[in-house]
Design a protein that fits this description.
Blueprint (H helix, E strand, L loop, with lengths): L1 H6 L4 H4 L1 E9 L4 E9 L11 E6 L2 H17 L7 E5 L6 H5 L12 H20 L2 E10 L1 H6 L12 E5 L7 H10 L5 E10 L2 H14 L7 E12 L2 H14 L8 H8 L6 H16 L7 H13 L5 H12 L5 H12 L3 H11 L10 H14 L4
Parallel strand pairs: 3-4, 3-5, 5-6, 6-7, 7-8
Antiparallel strand pairs: 1-2, 2-4
């Protein structure tokens, strides 16, 4: 955690770039300043789509979120994400944007206009201009953190994930949010946090909301609450950001040594099914369709070899062909299957085929030639 926080601000420009521009809003009747951060690979991958994060209080939340996401993406722990900050640094702007009716507990006045601006203008503009995946996140701090919960009041929420940092909750919100989340028809990720040094008047409603959310049994809700000791109303933000992001994108992470040991290697069978299910979940929950990582193929291969489930290597070869069609991975896996089942002639043929294809990961042409020679040496002479 400390390493992530120290590196958040190290050099964002190393990873990607941000631009600030005016946005003319008819809903608000004025120009609003937005800051857009595109992932480092955006221009290099014209077919790739990215999750989008909308930041309220973008004037001070943009850099810590942008840094955390790009740091995580550098190590492939988090997906590259388009980050859009709505700057609210003018006098009373964030308060006016978050205005709500005290009796009805819903956005009113400027708050209602701001609600329509986000859902009816900003998101459509961003999704038309940029390659956005169908996974939307919204985040805010205190006043704006409470406000973002109004998007959950809709029957079909337009955001998939919510980061509520020390929220200032509207009347009855601690009861209305759990009620809405109990009736979810689509997956929703929800994160909120507070701290022992947080503003006192905010803590009781936040804790009550946490108690109520923990009673929600809807399996479509993915909920996490953090209570930080020794943190203030402001420092809890830096503690919360990586926790929230790693909660939302837990299924994105490559197979770790712990996952391999505790979940994969102990399976009696179905190693390839585990791999495909992992990436199917990634597509279903996050709307991300990415090629299966080479290291994840190797982890499944290791489990197959450890448990001597050699026929599964053929299934692994099939999905390798689909995910990395120009590489030697598929033919290598077939060669390995024939080698382990004692068919040296067929193994040699597959390794020879592999040597003519693109190298990938630790698999090289020299390695395939060496394997071919080894198998040739095992073929009985006529």
């Amino acid at each position: 955690m400390k390493q992530i926080l120290l590196l958040l601000f190290f050099s964002i420009s190393v990873f990607s770039q941000k631009t600030t521009q005016p946005f003319e809003s008819k809903k608000l009747g004025e120009n609003r300043e937005i800051t857009i951060g595109l992932p480092a690979s955006y221009e290099k991958n014209p077919n790739k789509r990215y999750p989008i994060l909308i930041l309220l209080d973008g004037d001070y939340l943009f850099d810590p979120f942008f840094g955390a996401l790009n740091y995580g993406a550098y190590w492939d722990d988090l997906p590259e994400t388009i980050v859009v900050g709505i700057n609210q640094n003018k006098k009373d702007e964030r308060t006016e944007d978050s205005n709500y009716d005290e009796i009805e507990g819903v956005p009113s006045g400027k708050g209602a206009q701001f609600f329509e601006f986000i859902g009816g203008e900003l998101l459509p503009y961003l999704e038309k201009k940029y390659r956005v995946a169908p996974f939307r996140i919204i985040a805010g701090h205190d006043t704006t953190a409470g406000y973002l919960n109004f998007f959950l009041y809709k029957d079909s929420p337009i955001f998939n994930a919510y980061i509520s940092l020390s929220p200032e909750l509207a009347p009855e919100m601690e009861n209305r949010i759990p009620e809405k989340l109990s009736n979810l028809k689509q997956p929703v990720f929800y994160y909120q946090s507070t701290a022992d040094g947080d503003v006192k008047k905010l803590q009781a409603p936040i804790k009550k909301l946490d108690e109520n959310l923990k009673q929600v049994t809807n399996p479509l809700l993915n909920y996490k609450f953090d209570y930080f000791k020794g943190a203030s109303h402001y420092s809890l933000v830096l503690n919360s950001i990586p926790n929230a992001l790693y909660q939302f994108f837990d299924s994105y992470k490559p197979i770790s040594s712990t996952e391999y040991t505790d979940k994969i290697a102990i399976l009696p069978a179905g190693y390839v099914d585990y791999l495909t299910a992992k990436y199917d979940l990634l597509s279903k929950n996050l709307g991300l369709n990415i090629p299966i990582r080479v290291n994840d193929f190797k982890a499944i291969e290791a489990a197959i070899l450890k448990n001597k489930a050699y026929p599964e290597l053929e299934k692994l070869a099939v999905i390798a062909r689909k995910n990395h069609p120009k590489s030697m991975l598929s033919d290598y896996e077939l060669g390995l299957m024939y080698e382990k089942t004692g068919d040296s002639k067929k193994a040699a043929k597959q390794y020879q085929n592999a040597s003519q294809l693109d190298e990938i990961g630790a698999l090289t042409k020299d390695m395939m030639f060496q394997k071919f020679d080894e198998m040739q040496g095992l073929i009985p002479k006529k």
